[in-house]
From TrEMBL:
Active site: S515 (proton acceptor)
Originating species: Phocaeicola barnesiae
Binding site for Mg(2+): D82, D124, K125, E489
Protein name per Swiss-Prot or TrEMBL: Dihydroxy-acid dehydratase
One Gene Ontology CC term in the entry: cytosol
Function: Functions in the biosynthesis of branched-chain amino acids. Catalyzes the dehydration of (2R,3R)-2,3-dihydroxy-3-methylpentanoate (2,3-dihydroxy-3-methylvalerate) into 2-oxo-3-methylpentanoate (2-oxo-3-methylvalerate) and of (2R)-2,3-dihydroxy-3-methylbutanoate (2,3-dihydroxyisovalerate) into 2-oxo-3-methylbutanoate (2-oxoisovalerate), the penultimate precursor to L-isoleucine and L-valine, respectively.
Pfam families documented for this protein: ILV_EDD_C (PF24877), ILVD_EDD_N (PF00920)
Entry EC no(s): 4.2.1.9
Listed cofactors: Mg(2+); [2Fe-2S] cluster
Amino acid sequence: MKHQLRSSMSTEGRRMAGARALWMANGMKREMMGKPIIAIVNSFTQFVPGHTHLHEIGQLVKAEIEKLGCYAAEFNTIAIDDGIAMGHDGMLYSLPSRDLIADSVEYMVNAHKADAMICISNCDKITPGMLMAAMRLNIPAVFVSGGPMEAHKINGENADLITAMIKAADASVSDEEVTRIENCACPGCGSCSGMFTANSMNSLTEAIGLSLPGNGTILATHTNRIQLFKDAAQLIVKNAFKYYEEGDDSVLPRSIATRQAFMNAMTLDIAMGGSTNTILHLLAIANEGGVDFKMADIDQLSRRVPCLCKLAPNTQRFSIQECNRAGGILNILGELNKGGLLDTTCRRVNGHTLAEDIEEYSIMKETVSSEVKRIYSSAPGGVFSNKMGSQSKTYDTLDTDRADGCIRDIEHAYSKDGGLAVLFGNIAQNGCVVKTAGVDASIWKFSGPAKVFDSQEAACEGILGGKVVSGDVVVITHEGPKGGPGMQEMLYPTSYIKSKHLGKGCALITDGRFSGGTSGLSIGHISPEAAAGGNIGKIVDGDIIDIDIPNRSINVRLSDEELAARPMMPVTRNRQVSKALKAYASMVSSADMGGVRIID
Ligand SMILES: CC[C@H](C)C(=O)C(=O)O
Ligand SMILES: [Mg+2]
């Protein structure tokens, strides 16, 4: 049964003459009326290298769509660069911007009754914000991200912005060395080259099935990225007609991003040691679509999914470009499928099932198609460029070494249970998260005295000032979604712990969150947060904290009675919070629900 075009609201009927006049003033041809109007949700900005190359691509997509007879209208969302916003109170705005992006997409698409949308995202909060909007609106949608940044290597090891941050705070490193590293750490456009949050989310979008093969790993500078945009533009038109002309609901985001798809995506996330932010965002995206996907599901998966792929910051040997050479996301999924860990019946935005795409895009088959070789041979250009598709270098061979290559098979897994874990205990009755893939196995069990700080800034000062010593557990409170507000990423304190060469000697726990660039024994998203009365707010210096990743527990060594009798520690910091952020804080949930807005 056909579906009526949403846009008919403003293009049909005598009384909409004014709206039609305005559509034609925008450039719509009269013969386009009565066909789907496609929104191009772009996110170009020159504040973020992951978005600085998106200016022209929106109009290239428009041209591709209009060749097929549909009118396409581009608009832009905001995009915050976490790596620039952090280290000061700019980071308070990062997570709140996710929900602002989701709202801005809803406003534009519903105000103008667009029929379908192609979402051009990339960095940390933009992809999840647009995914939240897609699940909220549930109109035909295709995702295509700006693509990952090339990785700079020094003596075969990754040298990225995390390297720059750690070296810069290490007094033993010269100014010249710091300058040398910062000059090469980010060699142009794209989302920072490790399995940080942006690349984690763009890879998960590919796993969920809302983007095309290669979306998570084809480099931003490669010409194959432009081909991906052209393919996505053609696909959104095809899907819009399937939905409105044929009544085919299978192209809708909620038909694709089902509970099974979320479980597949989380399985991938655990297997690749993705950023812990993905847990926060997947919970929020599922919530928008009414999908039953909770922290308990993540905990259950983390106990049986092996870690099959480690990229920066979990290793300095590989980054996204090497993952692409090993077959990218669909080949990690292929290895997981061999272990029966996926539901491959899930249908994807290209109309295929996951089983079909895993089979078609495997690089381990006898004969690999030229299309598959083209995608996974995309290699770095090796020169600075902030222009999309500025080079077309290729690898001579693909990485099919599943024993010691970038992607492992289950027999050669880094660990039998995954790269992410959920812990519970009297500090986190509703859970907290840790990226196990980034924790040295020697400290999966750790106990030590608390050193408590009620702000990220105070913690940074304490770590750099020598207040934190080997054996300590750094506790950063009142940095949750409500308490911060905005649940800051704690990349600076976790990096400073490394700068002070305490990486294996200290733990850090917080109701805040971590950048995907964080590794080490860093436990975040503690829920309930201190600002919601959580027990983390009762911890004082010297309390013994017991962390046990294998047994999934985190406790302060106090009896229930002692803990209940403890008062909440007062907040001593002096932080100026704007009205906009206070409004956010007044409605936001703790991290265990994804830091979502609670209205009803
Ligand atoms: C590398 C740090 C990056 C900018 C980030 O914020 C993340 O991955 O979340
Ligand atoms: Mg981030």
